């Protein structure tokens, strides 16, 4: 009996970022709309010259979601350019695909920008930090000391993405915690680098894409990649602020209330309609999406943790 349109599952696949360099880990995730028990998902990753650099077979969870990690240390990962992840579910003739940029070394910021990588996802060589020029949103990689001077002059602002930060409850509102947590802080410290280098990311926040048109719905996915439950409390769980930098007098914020806990390896998806706390449409610019959570005792947290990502809203 020939398959009908209704029998063909809708498929989605995406990566956690839009650009990677040698040594990075790529998180590939997505969803199958109609799960068929025992049916595998196959994903091929092709380099810019259409050579297969990775082939993975996995199975969706009961709710249709899937996620797995891909390392880029294999010698096959060498050509700089646009890579394509192609997904197929079972014997279905339909599939899904997504693209990202990979290079075995870090290209110059403007070269990355011209290749289609959003400014807030530009990578810098070790020892340099990404700064976004205020006047035109162009990226630059500079030494931390230089970044500090440029920020003080109002030339630009620091944008961190996929940041992990932690603060014990006693200092949650302190200046030190603020400097670690905020992505556009005006006093650079080594805390961010130490946190990113030495700590794991229990929670991952990702969006279905990194750039949106004004008024377009933003799909936000949070995933617990740890081995224990994460707790979010009873208030707002996801905070959205912008446009960056936050010292802009027109900056706004919004909050989304989701589940109060997230079990290990579980994913929760929500959306933002680009309305601020007064239900007014936000304007274009960079926006940070972050969440505060903790693990362990669900009632008496010892340490709060946070994770964040950035999106760019354009006209």
Unreliable residue runs: 1-9, 160-200
How do the helices and strands follow one another from N- to C-terminus? EEEEEEEEHEEHEEHHEEEEEEEEEE
CATH topology of the largest domain: Immunoglobulin-like
Query: Could you tell me how far the N terminus lies from the C terminus, measured between alpha carbons in angstroms?
Result: 48 Å
Radius of gyration: 20 Å
- What is the CATH C level class of the largest domain, in words? Mainly Beta
Average pLDDT figure = 76
Shape: globular
User: At the fourth CATH level, what is the homologous superfamily of the largest domain?
Assistant: Immunoglobulins
Instruction: Indicate the structural class.
Output: mainly beta
CATH architecture of the largest domain: Sandwich
Largest sheet: 8 strands, mixed
The residue fraction in helices comes out at under 10%
Query: Please, how many domains?
Result: 2
- How many strand units? 22
**How many H/I helices?**
4
Strand content: 35-45%
What does this structure look like?
The termini are far apart. With about 325 residues, the chain is mainly beta. Strand 9 and strand 10 form a beta hairpin. The N terminus is likely disordered. It contains 4 helices and 22 strands. Strands 12, 14, 16, 17, 18, 19, 21 and 22 form an 8-stranded mixed sheet that branches.
How do you describe this structure in short?
The chain has helices at residues 109-114, 144-152, 175-181, 191-198, and strands at residues 11-15, 19-21, 25-32, 41-46, 52-58, 65-71, 81-89, 95-103, 129-133, 139-142, 156-158, 163-167, 203-207, 211-213, 218-224, 230-231, 238-242, 252-256, 261-262, 267-272, 285-295, 304-314. With 315 residues, the protein is mainly beta.
């Amino acid at each position: 009996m020939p398959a009908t349109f209704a029998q063909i599952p809708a498929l989605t696949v995406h990566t956690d970022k839009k650009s990677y360099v040698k040594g990075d880990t790529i998180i590939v995730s997505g969803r199958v709309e109609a799960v068929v028990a025992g049916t595998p998902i196959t994903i091929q990753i092709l380099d810019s010259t259409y050579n297969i650099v990775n082939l993975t077979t996995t199975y969706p969870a009961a709710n249709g979601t899937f996620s797995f990690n891909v390392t880029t240390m294999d010698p096959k990962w060498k050509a700089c350019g646009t890579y394509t992840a192609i997904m197929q579910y079972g014997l279905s003739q339909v599939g899904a695909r997504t693209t990202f940029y990979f290079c075995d070394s870090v290209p110059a910021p403007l070269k990355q920008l011209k290749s289609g990588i959003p400014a807030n996802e530009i990578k810098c060589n070790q020892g340099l930090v990404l700064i976004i020029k205020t006047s035109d949103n162009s990226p630059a990689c500079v030494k931390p000391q230089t970044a500090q001077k440029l920020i003080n002059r109002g030339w630009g602002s620091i944008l961190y993405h996929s940041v992990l930060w932690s603060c014990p409850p006693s200092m949650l509102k302190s200046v030190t915690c603020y400097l670690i947590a905020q992505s556009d802080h005006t006093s650079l410290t080594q805390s961010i680098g130490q946190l990113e280098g030495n700590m794991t990311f229990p929670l991952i926040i990702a969006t279905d894409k990194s750039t949106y048109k004004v008024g377009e719905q933003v799909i936000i996915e949070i995933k617990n990649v740890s081995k224990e439950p994460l707790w979010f409390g009873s208030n707002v769980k996801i905070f959205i602020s912008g446009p960056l930098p936050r010292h802009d007098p027109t900056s706004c914020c919004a909050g989304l209330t989701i589940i109060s806990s997230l079990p290990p390896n579980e994913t929760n998806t929500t959306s933002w309609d680009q309305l601020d706390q007064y239900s007014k449409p936000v304007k274009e610019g960079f926006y940070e999406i972050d969440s505060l959570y903790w693990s362990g005792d669900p009632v008496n947290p010892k340490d709060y943790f946070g994770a964040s990502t950035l999106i760019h809203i354009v006209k």
